[in-house]
């Protein structure tokens, strides 16, 4: 992985305090999202410690796929946001988790459904889980940073389409660096792990730093 410059005209460097603060804010935000999911389907979500780092956009696919086994077969919910801080959220689940979610949301015998109906149901429920986790997490994250954002509709893709997303222009050419926040989570009593990545445009770096400064001033 390429190291980010120590200092530069874009003030890209993040201090240890800024990194710790962002990781803590994401922990709070996703905890809020996990609580909302528990209210919806009565399942407890266990969180790992969030991690944050600036990273070259060209390395994003390699970095993310290295964190996850069989990444190309994973189910991904992606949602873009625009505003004071702009970027994309990616909620990633291992292949096959959709069937587990169907059993949590539906009482009917889904094995009796026709395959095309089951596939559509799995997609709808996966999008609903993504909408809850991403929406609640981003909502709380921006609330903590007192920022405003517009959320584009989420969509479902699979891992091998992920790189194509960036090729098609998810990040501008000027966005040679991105700010990545991510964490791993598991569901209680189920052998299923998921991942949430928040990837913010380079143009948001200075706004993130300003928002953190305002956040600290509330407690001084």
Brief characterization of the structure:
The protein is α+β, with helices and mostly antiparallel strands and 220 residues long. The protein is built from 6 helices and 8 strands; from the N terminus they run αββαββααββαββα. Strands 1, 2, 3, 4, 5, 6, 7 and 8 form an 8-stranded antiparallel sheet that branches.
Task: Describe the protein.
- This protein is of the alpha+beta class and 220 residues long.
- It is 42% helix and 24% strand.
- It contains 6 helices and 8 strands; from the N terminus they run αββαββααββαββα.
- α1 packs across α4 (115-144) and α3 (97-105) packs across α4 (115-144).
- Residues 1-11 have low confidence and may be disordered.
Structural class: alpha+beta
Oligomer: single chain
In which range does the helix fraction lie? 40-55%
Intertermini distance:
37 Å
Global geometry: globular
How many alpha or pi helices? Answer: 6
Secondary structure layout:
Blueprint: H1 16-41, E1 45-47, E2 51-56, H2 60-67, E3 75-83, E4 87-93, H3 97-105, H4 115-144, E5 149-151, E6 155-158, H5 162-167, E7 177-187, E8 193-201, H6 205-217
Antiparallel strand pairs: 1-7, 2-7, 3-4, 3-5, 3-6, 4-8, 7-8
Which short descriptors sum up this protein?
220 residues, alpha+beta, 8-stranded antiparallel beta sheet, 8 strands, globular
